[in-house]
Amino acid sequence: MPWIYLLLAGVFEIGFALGLKYSDGFSKPWPTVATIISAGISLYLLTQALRTIPVGTGYAIWTGIGALGVAILGIFLFGDSASAPRLACIGLIVAGVIGLKLVSG
């Protein structure tokens, strides 16, 4: 169950980061509210996951899921670069997250 909490925390981390963009510097009320709620849920789920998962592993995976998700969605939603070097770096994040999961059991 802690790994499910961690995965969901990462998904809400993606929502939080994207919400920062959509809230336009917290000037738009509804995106701001959604951003704050997403951040709260993400942090709550992260704390639940870290009851069992080592903090270094959990935090690295949480930020990796967030970075990966935001990078991919940035390509599709905001036209961010999808150059080969950028995609290769995204691939390194994926490899790191998978590697941490494998060595953490």
TrEMBL record:
Entry-linked SUPFAM superfamilies: Multidrug resistance efflux transporter EmrE
Protein's name in the database: Guanidinium exporter
Transmembrane segments annotated in the record for this chain: 29-47, 59-78, 84-103
Keywords: Cell membrane, Membrane, Transmembrane, Transmembrane helix, Transport
Subcellular location: Cell membrane
Lineage summary: Bacteria, Pseudomonadati, Pseudomonadota, Gammaproteobacteria, Lysobacterales
Signal peptide: none
Membrane topology: Multi-pass membrane protein
Family to which the UniProt record says this protein belongs: Belongs to the drug/metabolite transporter (DMT) superfamily. Small multidrug resistance (SMR) (TC 2.A.7.1) family. Gdx/SugE subfamily.
Coiled coil: none
PANTHER family for this protein: GUANIDINIUM EXPORTER, SMR FAMILY PROTON-DEPENDENT DRUG EFFLUX TRANSPORTER SUGE
Organism in which the protein naturally occurs: Stenotrophomonas aracearum
Domain of life from the UniProt record: Bacteria
